[in-house]
Design a protein that fits this description.
The chain is mostly beta strands. The chain has no helices and 11 strands. It has strands at about 1-5, 10-15, 20-25, 35-40, 45-50, 60, 70-75, 80-85, 90-100, 115, 120-124. A hairpin with a 6-residue loop joins β4 and β5. It is globular, with a radius of gyration of 13 Å.
Length: about 120
């Protein structure tokens, strides 16, 4: 079992920045691939970013490329999502997720463990 706890969400004006953290406990986080997803009110959950267990591979959804950066510190069992140049359309609950094996990394069904989510609200 892996327990994930996100933090760092909040209210920010458009153009601002936030850094989300995802602290893992339980099994060794360094052996798990990590993803960030988000869900806006009335919308389906969507993929945001992915990083493999080693940190060598990162993938982003097109709408956040150049603005968001995923990273991880395995020594601290923590993953991060740095969000810059935030837009109102980034408003959502953000979730981190982890999985040992991920074939379709953009699919939430591939991930075994999820955090409780943290709210990000971007005002115009």
């Amino acid at each position: 079992q892996v327990q994930l706890v996100e933090s760092g969400g909040g209210l920010v004006q458009a153009g601002g920045s936030l850094r989300l953290s995802c602290v893992a406990s339980g099994r060794t986080f360094s052996t798990y691939n990590m993803g960030w997803f988000r869900q806006a009110p009335g919308k389906e959950r969507e993929f945001v970013a992915y990083m493999d267990w080693s940190g060598d591979t990162t993938v982003y959804t097109d709408s956040v490329k150049g603005r968001f950066t995923i990273s991880r510190d395995n020594a601290k069992n923590t993953g991060y999502l740095q969000m810059n140049s935030l837009k109102p359309e980034d408003t959502a609950v953000y979730y981190c997720a982890a999985a040992r094996t991920v074939l379709r990394l953009r699919s939430g069904r591939q991930y075994d463990y999820w955090g409780q989510g943290t709210q990000v609200t971007v005002s115009p």
